[in-house]
């Protein structure tokens, strides 16, 4: 699946910039350190998602996670082919792999669900023998405690990881802990921090800190503060903040030569599930933007020995757009915002909706946008809609402050602020339910473009 590892290795050997592997569209992709030369690395098998790529220290082996949320396992890809590193088991999911500096062992997260008990573990596995050791075991408790994102120290003697719990306000409270790689008690290294990554020389550690409370994102019942990129001494002292925006960063990754830190962030459009890839110098200078106009790119990893880690422009505002619009043939609506809208890019066509979740500019984009389409001639009885005629179209405003626009064979669903920006994608005669027509005054009906009742 994807291109052969030998072909990918050849492309790396011939290229001057270092190579980066990352997740995109459910599979793994690769590109150069300047953001060019995007190639597929591993295509996702049907019904499964690939994530968490990590290259061995010599750059010859790639380990990654494959599967679903509850049955993921680790895969190992090298010149001989691809095989399972851990087995697929119902109720167990392995992810977030990290190589030991000698390339003999992989540390990873194991999530287990059994008998109404959720358990997370930091596990190490000897690649040659398959011998496993659970270093940290954390059962889900009334604080939602978990562990994840292991990372080896440069000498291989220590593994740093994230311990997370939730406070009474359902806000995440992560901290970085360390444990001896051969087993032993854990200790807290840095509070209000997560996703550790040691520098190649072992003197520093990069991580995401929530201490600044700069930006907040919430799910259905839990929230977390966006992580800012920090670098500190390996013992956690003298922390230095490198980013200052409301975006949430992923696990940072040091380049093999220690000159750059690679990470993904949704800084351009927070809350839009639209991560982009960046690198920055360890002192916070020369922030580069590697992906622009692509589908969401996340969880990046350097490939050791592949080239120069710094080849990009230090001015992210100059990053050119590399954008291929998604196909819209399956979208049944006749109104849309075009492929571009005030810097937003159409990124996804799914479930009868158009999603604008990527920003072609480094800053200054509006909030994410969505245009949906549905059946016109359903039941619209009752007075729960505020009716008006705009641009010759009947517009019904719901109690949720969303607009239903009757401009074709299908309803267009859109937020109020986007009504005037809608474009006609396909000319159609509007179909308007009789229940709504009956509520219009003669003056309002006279303003309507040609329509058919239903």
TrEMBL record:
Keyword Signal set for record: yes
Database matches in Gene3D superfamilies: TolB, C-terminal domain
Alphabetical UniProt keywords: Signal
Pfam families, sorted: PD40 (PF07676)
InterPro entries in the cross-refs: 6-blade_b-propeller_TolB-like, WD40
Leader peptide range in chain numbering: 1-18
Similarity-based family: Belongs to the TolB family.
Full protein name: Uncharacterized protein
């Amino acid at each position: 699946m994807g291109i052969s590892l030998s072909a990918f290795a050849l492309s790396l050997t011939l290229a001057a910039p270092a190579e980066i592997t990352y997740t995109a569209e459910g599979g793994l992709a690769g590109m150069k350190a300047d953001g060019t030369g995007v190639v597929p690395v591993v295509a996702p098998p049907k019904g499964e998602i690939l994530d968490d790529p990590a290259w061995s220290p010599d750059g010859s082996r790639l380990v990654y996670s494959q599967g679903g949320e509850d049955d993921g396992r680790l895969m190992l890809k090298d010149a001989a082919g691809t095989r399972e590193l851990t087995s697929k088991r119902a109720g167990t999911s392995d992810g977030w792999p990290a190589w030991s500096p000698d390339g003999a062992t992989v540390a990873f997260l194991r999530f287990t669900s059994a008998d109404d008990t959720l358990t997370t573990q930091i596990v190490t596995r000897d690649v040659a023998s398959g011998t496993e050791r659970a270093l940290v075991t954390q059962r889900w408790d009334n604080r939602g405690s978990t562990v994840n994102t292991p990372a080896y120290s440069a000498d291989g003697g220590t593994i740093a990881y994230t311990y997370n719990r939730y406070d009474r306000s359902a806000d995440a409270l992560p901290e970085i802990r360390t444990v001896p790689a051969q087993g032993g008690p854990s200790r807290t290294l840095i509070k209000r921090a997560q996703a550790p990554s040691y520098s190649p020389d072992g003197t520093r550690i990069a991580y995401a800190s929530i201490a600044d409370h700069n930006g907040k994102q919430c799910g259905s019942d839990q929230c977390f503060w966006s992580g800012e990129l920090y670098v500190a001494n390996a013992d956690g002292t003298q922390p230095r903040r490198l980013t200052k925006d409301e975006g949430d960063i992923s696990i940072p990754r040091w380049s093999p030569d220690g000159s750059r830190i690679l990470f993904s962030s949704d800084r351009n459009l927070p809350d839009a599930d639209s991560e982009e890839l960046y690198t920055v110098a360890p002192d916070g200078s020369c922030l580069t933007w590697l992906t622009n106009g692509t589908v969401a790119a996340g969880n990046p990893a350097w490939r050791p020995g592949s080239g120069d880690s710094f080849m990009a422009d230090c001015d992210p505002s100059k990053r050119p757009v590399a954008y291929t619009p998604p196909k819209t043939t399956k979208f049944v609506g006749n109104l849309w915002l075009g492929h571009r809208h005030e810097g937003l890019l159409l990124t996804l066509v799914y479930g009868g909706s158009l999603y604008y979740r990527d920003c072609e500019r480094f800053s200054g984009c509006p909030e994410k946008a969505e245009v949906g389409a549905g059946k016109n001639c359903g039941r619209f009885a009752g007075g729960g809609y505020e009716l008006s005629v705009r641009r010759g179209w009947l517009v019904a405003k719901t109690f949720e402050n969303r607009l239903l626009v009757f401009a074709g064979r299908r309803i267009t669903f859109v937020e109020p602020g986007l009504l005037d920006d809608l474009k006609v994608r396909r000319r159609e005669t509007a179909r308007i339910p009789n229940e709504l027509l009956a509520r219009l005054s003669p003056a309002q009906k006279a303003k309507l473009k040609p329509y058919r009742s239903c």
